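# step 3/5: fold
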Amino acid sequence: MAGGTPSTPETISRLGMREGYLMDGYGKRILVVDEDADRRALLEAQLEQEGYAVQTACDGVAGADEMRKRHFEAVIADGRLPEFCGHKLAASCRISWPDTPIILLSGDLIYVTDHADAVDAAAGLRTPYEAVMLLSVLSAITQPASTKQSPFSRAQST
């Protein structure tokens, strides 16, 4: 290929194609809020590989600021953010963008289930989670209503 970049099956084109199919996340904006820079970067890379446009925030206050600036198709937040925790961020999101699905992440299963229910989160996932599980949930909750087969309500990984 001209320009010195070899074409491989994993090469992602500008049209959101990989290995001949349209990626689930193509063009969908996702907000990732996590205080851990390494986890945030890993999640950002995984989502971008699937075609999602990812914006990150390092805490709940920054996440709420991002939500005031633009609309996101989904928000993925660590439930245990310092100062402005994930469930408070989710509640704030409900005010600004009531139809935006939220995925809460936490290592504490009781926290995930209790707070996901309390803020009407689309899903609560216990960490560590399998990337394929998160991507599956995210794909399901960001599908247009006319193409949804069955809702992913309170998907939980143990």
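# step 4/5: annotate
The CA atoms of residues 102 and 120 lie 8 Å apart.
# step 5/5: archive (pending)
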